[in-house]
Amino acid sequence: MTDIFKLENVTFRHTPTAPIVLNGMDLVIEEGTRNAILGANGVGKTTMFYTLTGVHKPQEGTVYNRDVPVEYTKDGLRSLRSDVAVVLQNPDEQIFCSLVEEDIAFGPLNLGLERDEVERRVSKAMRDVRMSEFARRPLQQLSGGQRKRVAIAGALAMEPKIMIMDEPTAGLDPQASMEVMELAEKLHLMGVTVLISTHDIDIVYKWADQSYVLYGGKVEFAGHIDEFYSNPERVYRCGLLTPSMFNMNRDISMLDGMDVAPYPRNCCEFTAKFGKPSRSGKVLCVPVEEEEALGKYEEVMKDMNGVPAGVYGPDARFALRSKELEYQFDAIDSCFTDAVRGKDAVLFHDPIYSKTIEEQVEKLKAIGFDADVEVVR
Amino acid sequence: MTEPLLEADHVTYRYSRKGPKVLDDMCMTIEQGKKTAIMGCNGAGKSTLFSVLNALYKPQDGKVLFKGSPLTYKHRDIIKMRSEVSILFQNPNDMMFKPYVEQDVAYGPENMKLPKDEVEERVQEALFAVGMEAYRKSPIMKLSYGQRKRVTLAGVLAMRPSAIIMDEPTAGLDPQMAYEVMELAEQMHTNGVTVIMSSHDTDLTYSWADELRVMHGGKCMYAGEPEPFYSDYASVQKAGLLLPSVFMVNKTLSDLGKCSLEPYPRAQSQVSLKIAEHQDVDLGILHVVRADRDTDVAAVLEENDLNGFSKGVYGMSARFAARNTSVDVDFLYNGPESCTMKCLDGEDSVLICDPVMYEKAISSAMFINSNGYGKINIDII
């Protein structure tokens, strides 16, 4: 696998007399992975992102992009940044235009794309973050969470190969946070390398393959996060806490003399492990393209009296927005939790997420629960 | 039912004459002395409501009542109300008044015309409370977002208000700082302050709040205890929220017949023991050291032979005492829960605790003991 980014012994301070922020940091990010960057406030997460994208030039050490050292020339930086989109923590720092749709179009226009292509991307990105109805609104009139969504849409419209999101869910309501994670998952499935820094340990615990914990200007831990969380004193030292699923799993497993692994990371896995479910309800998975979604919905649901339905993915959600589905957000977990409960559920989803659903089924299998899944073509 | 502190009575507010109604004929009551969480999706009108309650905005329709009397919007009345009700805005940059940390924190008390010594004492205490003593002389511009957030909180604490409205106090904070803020909110509550908090963190607020107010489309769609609201998933979804993980796990496992639905656990350790089957295993002892500011914690630990156990701290006087006697604390944040979890692992733990916070500190252990889910011996020192 290619290394998208590599930091080798990187040291950075903002001014010659300022404290060292990155202190001989080593880091490798592999292409196509889901990465979480964790650490206390002020530990240097944002500075690290700026170093990866060539905004900061380190005083020592080397930054590699696809195994080539970054050149801090106009051309070198342009080629690096044409691949990367960044969502900053504070949306007000990346507002370029006064109206929502103009602001989102700013990046694609700068890429020199055709007018039609820009329009297509902008309207798609606005829909993905549910801001279409605000297209002509001035950004000043939006709430903090809405401005954040506009910033995310701007990054999506760049169609980058690498997506860096600095605290993308801070200030967002729970459903909007789930939507952002759903979009991050979609980018991952499209082959984009995704880096997310966040304080929401619970939300990334469910999502990331690779986690990096920053402490004292270095990468204190890199790998599968369960190993890190198993040492509470170390977790505390790094300014973090352990996710609630991790804590409850560890305690109950210990009390009941079970193996702590496999680690459940969401509700369906947790209840499958500890609820001793007798049989699985059926999860009817319906992959739908946007145009056919409504028709499929009518067709599948007509014989489904009282069976709850969920939707996963921005296109399917948009197509089914007039239907009052039971699970609008976090629907994979909700539908499989129903299966654990012995109840049936229907899951409409964008076709691209079939792989995510397969992963969920595999994880449940590892816990000892065979979910009954039928895919409707 | 306690007395209402603040009431919105059919309040309608729009930012401009042609703009949408951000608050739409909204009615809501905040009771004195309660811990109230205000939740709702982005754009539901939470921050606007706070500005209306604090008389920053005057509603076009309806009334705001403070302790039963309608606001007059006269300068003197507003000043009086604001001396009792402080507001902590979401974005710390909106409430920085002075260039240096200590000046900024002193700004409120100085405006209250307090004597110099009193101002100094309050500034010191407030900076200690938010863990920013070391930054006293720092320029605010050089602080990170999380640090600024803590400085603004110190500024509000230094006013010693009888009620505090906190708009998203934990957003952008790392998990430990978020718990520090929740501890301060609990401390203020035990000191008799009415605490009102908006937040998107359903897990944090569920472990803390007595009362829930849910806003949607400029109206208050739910007022009451959290559980009835979370039991109605359609409403939860409509409000833009999700279930707290503790609630969701308890509900699903009770559906599976693994446990009863009630009593509702509000913390992770409570869920763990409620669900675990082998409840007769030996649990560790929770040693609670009730520490006043001048308690020699090191000596107490020595005397009772407690130095070998993991130690947590909870509450202001306990933090003072632990620091003054240089005790090594393992769990500086989320102390009660972390110590209780140690007990679940079969190890003793020590919780150095502010006496006024005692009840909250042992609440998880009491939940476990009184419901017969296990026996955590509580050793009070």
Task: List the topology elements.
The complex is a heterodimer of chains A (377) and B (381).
Chain A: E1 3-13, E2 20-30, E3 34-38, H1 45-52, E4 60-65, E5 68-69, H2 74-81, E6 84-87, H3 100-110, H4 115-128, H5 144-156, E7 162-166, H6 174-189, E8 193-197, H7 201-205, E9 210-215, E10 218-223, H8 225-229, H9 232-237, H10 244-255, H11 267-274, E11 282-287, H12 293-301, E12 309-312, H13 314-319, H14 331-340, E13 345-349, H15 354-367, E14 372-375
Parallel strand pairs in A: 3-8, 3-9, 6-7, 7-8, 11-13, 11-14, 12-13
Antiparallel strand pairs in A: 1-2, 1-4, 4-5, 9-10
Helix pairs in contact in A: 3-4, 3-5, 4-5, 11-14
Chain B: E1 4-14, E2 21-31, E3 35-39, H1 46-53, E4 61-66, E5 69-70, H2 75-84, E6 85-88, H3 101-111, H4 116-129, H5 145-157, E7 163-167, H6 175-190, E8 194-198, H7 202-208, E9 211-216, E10 219-224, H8 226-230, H9 233-238, H10 245-255, H11 268-275, E11 286-290, H12 297-303, E12 310-314, H13 316-324, H14 335-344, E13 349-353, H15 358-361, H16 363-370, E14 378-380
Parallel strand pairs in B: 3-8, 3-9, 6-7, 7-8, 11-13, 11-14, 12-13
Antiparallel strand pairs in B: 1-2, 1-4, 4-5, 9-10
Helix pairs in contact in B: 3-4, 3-5, 4-5, 11-16
Can you describe this structure?
- The complex is a heterodimer of chains A (377) and B (381).
- Chain A is built from 15 helices and 14 strands.
- Chain A is α/β, with parallel strands linked by helices and 377 residues long.
- Chain A has a six-stranded mixed sheet, with helices on both faces. A four-stranded antiparallel sheet of chain A has the order 2-1-4-5, covered by helices on one side.
- In chain A, helix 3 (100-110) packs parallel to helix 5 (144-156) and helix 4 packs across helix 5 (144-156).
- Chain A is globular, with a radius of gyration of 22 Å.
- Chain A starts with a strand and ends with a strand.
- Chain B is globular.
- In chain B, the strands form three sheets. A six-stranded mixed sheet of chain B has the order 6-7-8-3-9-10, with helices on both faces.
- Helices cover 39% and strands 21% of the residues of chain B.
- The mean pLDDT of chain B is 88.
- The interface between A and B is large, with 58 and 62 residues.
